[in-house]
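Exercise 3.2. Students should predict the tertiary structure of the chain below and write it as structure tokens, then compare their answer with the key that follows.

Predict this chain's 3D structure.
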Amino acid sequence: MSTVGQVLDAMIGYYAGDVRRINHFLKVYGFARSIGEKEGLTSDELLILEIAALTHDIGIRNSEKKYNSAAGNYQELEGPPEARKMLESLGFDKRVVDRVCWLIAHHHTYGALDGPDHAILVEADFLVNAFEDAMPLSSIRSVKEKVFTTRTGKMYLDTLYISKTSEGTAP
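Answer key:
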């Protein structure tokens, strides 16, 4: 049976030597797993979410090669084929692979969130990006109001950025 640990190992190998990217997906994975557990996802939903969190940025390398950009729209385009190859080679079920690829293709799409796994992946990625990109507090508050839907994601956002910081950028 294929496991999340196999995906983690494969992604560390995929980004070997790129500590920044590895740290990013590990942080997103940690937040996604915690939010998913606290929000009561089923074991199947949590499996898909965890795999998507680990692989959500798998399209960056090809985006940079093809478009000289790591922009979200390119990641969403280039990520699913790379993830599909990896996950199929690890023996994951087609249903899992298809949903993970859909999530990768929409992880920067904040408009219409399609299910709790999508909402949590977006929230977990934002929690990490807010820090890594030193986002202004006004942007963080705006995204919280317009995008965040889970109680746990909102609590983490408040604890990390809003409750502890009165103004300026994310620490």
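Discussion points: The chain has a mean pLDDT of 92. The radius of gyration is 15 Å.
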